## 1
Amino acid sequence: MDAYCTFEDAVRRVTALGHALPGEEVALAEAEGRVLAAPVLARIPVPPFTRAMMDGFAVRSADAQVPPVRLRVRTTTAAGDAAAPPLGPGEAVRILTGAPLPPGADAVVRFEWCDEPEPGVVTVLRRISPGESVQPEGDDAPAGSTLITAGTRLGPLERALAQTFGVARVRVRRVPRVAIVVTGSELVTTPETPLGPGQIYSCNDTLMAGLVASAGGQVMAVDVLPDHPDRIKEAIARHAAACDCVITTGGASAGDYDFIPSVLADLGGEMSVHKVWLRPGSPFLAARVGACTVFSLSGNPAAALVQFESLVRVWFDAALGRPAKPFPATGRLAHALHLKPVKHTRVLRARAALTDGVLTVDTSLAQSSGVLSSLVASNCLVRIDEPDLPAGTPVPLRWLPGCAP
């Protein structure tokens, strides 16, 4: 398979490789960052009883229609106490926020709307309506209702919500197991080691590991290998037998030392994508080796980032049962764009910010694949399909990991 495919076709093919992984049940305390395979349902209503929302006196509103009204105070109830016995006519219960309302009471009169002329007596100074300063049982959500939908990635807020409703265990997708194979005879893996002639420090191992984690995967192994076909073949074969996905960088093009295409062919790989009309990142391979998906990305870190965010992340979404959309947001160009016409879909690094309530996108950062420093200055990638676009044009956008507002 040597023919280029369009970006849209590549997205479809990569999505098709990402079959949803099976679900498993885990303790809620261990579910941070996991993706739900089934919705979370409320085990109890919340609140589980009708409760006071203010400090004051629980009363029967019918007793407080013509103020001032004197009521006999029977007892005090605080949060964590059982509800007081049922109220009779002319009675009140001193109640604190969060405490259960006694049967018969249907409102809470705030302390500031009352006078206490003597112990055991309260005077209500204003008319009270039913339901004032009261939260009914199940007001947040009743038992059995859907709290969080399948496909949601669980964070602190989602887990706190589930715990509030008495949920102890959740069903989540199994975490994709991923191996990373970085190739290049010029690479030095430890920054403490002085560089020799023609050498550079490797960064794709760090970059890919971070991107995999941000996409919901678990990195099982990282290899940094020289451009030696036998060693690369052995590593891919070994990892493909144990992982759901193998990501390689370098060696995916057509140079003398680009061995990945021939290695995948030797392993019986079923090629789905070989080249994409994508800039940067045209040399991009997606294949199946046994039950494992193998992605081969550019050795250039800037291009590899674009390939991961535009295409590989789609596979993770599909594997985790989430909607796969490479550029899910939209921004408006802060300036006009005038680019050289090409067949490729361009993906530009950019800086997005809210300006007068509009998300505007500045692509004036350095875009050369050889310049990495501007990646840190960017917070998103934008897709550009036309060479000439006026300021204000809507463009598809993907926030970089950790940058979404």
## 2
Amino acid sequence: MSDWAMVQLGEVIKLDIDAVPVSAGTSYDIFGVLNRGRGLLRREAVLGSEISYKTLNRLRPNQIVYSRLKAFEGAITVAPHGLGEIFASQEFPTFTCGERLLPEYFALVTTTKRLWAQLQGLSTGMGGRRERVKPGDFLTIELALPSLPEQRRIVDAMAAVDALVEALQREIVTGEAMRTPLVGSLVSEPESNGSIRSLNEVGSFIRGRRFTKNDYVDSGLGCIHYGQIHTDLGAITTEPLTYLPDSFRDRMRLAGYGDVVIAATSENTDDLGKATVWLGNGEVALHDDAYIFRHSLDPVFASYVFISPAFQAQKVQYAAGTKVTRISAENLGKIEVAIPGPDIQTKIGEAMRALDQDLEELVAELALLRAFRSALLTALLNQEVEIPESYEALLPEVL
């Protein structure tokens, strides 16, 4: 392994603040810094007349910036190119890298727990009494610094992994965007001969009953909370994530095999009515902010009805509420969708299920790749792995 120099940040970067006087008639694009090294947060533009500061700090590409107030949360990053003119208050000091430190390399360092811990150590106190991290103290942080060629090799290797991550993310986004149009196109194909029917004509909606997260136990009666439909469950569910005591069974509303479970509450209209079909063993209890749709349709097809273009378009007129959006069982039943014959329902369900399985595999692959990225970065910055001039020798060493 090559020897890395142990330096203080003050030896390789310098405080470099471009303070710009605030003009009342000028509009300023304001930024913040996300915690855990996650980059910049761009805020809405603000007129100078609405800003109490006399000056703002202008951020330039490749500059290091952190939040003095939130540094203990890892609110530090390196500014990318292409941002245009952006500004922040004096609470966001900026620094420029010297000749010995590549900004791209330090950008990787800002995503590490080690640096976050060092920042936390400089910020004493609790809550509102926590002290800000001063630029002078920040510059005392110690960093193990490889040579410039080795920094460049590390940056290039991580950029290659990041390109794979981004490609997988794009593929997942594209696949997810296909789901609703695909249901619509399959239902509208000439061979489907789907008749337009209201959901009340093919099933009924049954509201769940109240339970709280404090009721959860390690095993017992499986249950589905409406929040799980939004965050954890896909179009098909075969295993419960949480359980209630068996003694709750008689007072709960239970979904059986083939029943569709629908979220009746959401923070936005887009996610209102998100659904999953229960294809597991036995029955599951349902939270009272969700409905059981008991129907005469193919179970898998029935789940995908709730992402169809017809359902998505009509639910908007029935959504109620501002901060929290709700839809009633009565209004759900009024929504009209194309219902093809049983054989076509099965074919549509199989086609959609295949798409979702492909997406699940991509999501799993992305999770593995992200885990590999994290392990690789840690190994590189801890000098557990050294990138040779020939990159081909790297992969067998880290796997």
## 3
Amino acid sequence: VIKKYQYLDKVNFPSDIKNLKISELKILAREVRKEMIDAVSVTGGHLGAGLGVVELTIALHYVFDTPNDKIIWDVGHQAYPHKILTGRKDKIKTLRQGNGLSGFTKRSESEYDPFGAAHSSTSISAALGIATANKLEKKSNQVVAVIGDGAISAGMAYEAMNNAGSSKTKMIVILNDNDMSIAKPVGAMSTYLAKLLSGKIYFSLRETIKLIISAFSKRFSDKARKAEDFLRSAVTG
């Protein structure tokens, strides 16, 4: 077998990612990005959403215990890196082809796809449903919804957040505010996020998060620290 990548060749499932050092994850991210571009150049598909979440995808699978912990991707287009890292690397060039991989997350395709995402703004409500089931069954697994700044402006996302807040259900929502969507984000939410990222609140957020983390269990703190270390290395080199 011809070796193509330094680290991606060794990664078939998220458990393999956990064997890598933080410094090696940055190289893995470059390799995942290259593999994704190579695949989409053959099959066609949506590049932007997936390219924008490569580091985030690696960080989530590195920190959380998937598939026991559930990651719900809003809009299936951003799940290409997720597919590469969850046992479907060898089939990635069959994306959107007959009898090939779906262009979206698909429950029948992998145990790492707990929800069949297609169009936007459904991830928070889906995550809330799974988290509510965990609560009823007294399970401690984490449930994470990943949603973008464009998708979060839709009504279904607001309804889900309203319901989650009132029910006090344990779940995590990650807002991927990268100022990218099919069309330019508009409206009050987009304006608010832009102001938030340019204001003092954003720059003091890290210290606030440290205080919050210190109040939680050591297991949660260790996971948060791992994610912070990786994201810092991705940004600063």
## 4
Amino acid sequence: MQVLKTVCLLVLMMTHTTTSSLVTEGNLVVQSSNNFSNNVYMHLIKSGGNVLYCPISAHVLLSLVYLGAKGKTAHEMKIALQIKYSDKVLKNSYKKILNGIHHSTLNIVIRIYSKIGVKVKPDFISTSQNYFASYFQEVDFTKRKETAQLINTFVQDQTKDTIKDFVKADSLHNALNMILVNAAHFKSDWIFSFSKAVEGDFYVSKTQKVIVEMMNTGKTCDFKSSSTLNSKLVRIHFKNLSYSMIIVLPNKIDGLCEVELKLQNQINEIFHGYSTRVVNISIPKFKIETEINLLSVLKYLGMKLLFSTEANLSGLLYDPTLVDRVLQKTYIDVNEYGVDVAASTLISVEFYSGIFEQETFVADHPFLFFITFENLIIFQGRFVKPN
């Protein structure tokens, strides 16, 4: 049975324009993506409310475009994407990461739709296919309905029918040279099950509370109390142990903004310093769905030329081109169902409960959450109130 399902779709559209005049390679890219993730997140939370987005989806697709950028455009992208190493390291690292992902749990797919007759640089095609496992397809953007249906069918298939009709036919036009689509789909069971959700209080603020469905369990998992963040953290693994959900719960009901500011330059704090505890966990059952145009965020981070007539993407296409839109749609469903723990495992848990210290983790006020593959942030968000 499904316990957590997240889906992300990123679409990057390129338009023709006429110009007027850590230790290992993989860890370096992981750190870049995580830092980029937090920088984007700090901009997204300005609008308030729940937040959900998929940083790896954005970073991998923009990194691919960066490899086709030149001059000042490439320089701006390199800084914004936190790339502090050679292009060779970037390509080899993403090849390792994308090959290392367990596709039965997390599936990340890139498809590139180019306009019929537009010449794509051979080196870019080679890089896309050999390092990013991309698939190219020529389309006629003047046939709006057919092309939109083609793209939407691909997205719907890759996201297991979760995202439908994302690309609108009226958003397509003949000036488009290329559309890059990245679909990411994550689905997994918890390593242990939660009890059936029951109603409980959730404090939206110190003075306001609402009723939500709370999921409860008491099992051994990774726990830490962070004085740096003034928070409690739990890391709950999924059936595939390479993946986990990290929840950062401020000690104060109104402490979310304070924690977010502290994490801005200390994102690695969420990965280290845990110890095994028996933790009585209570978290809300929730769903979040978002649709974001990342263009303003990326401009804020310094990618300005990419979206102007001065964009230099000469390593990608022969024709002058700029990026028109960067859209992301993301969905998450967190519920109590998971893998039933076998009797032998339950016995082991009961045995260990006498050895490990016990902790209580009640997420009854706003918190942050991360879905990670090892130390790579796949999804990042905040839950501040029920929809």
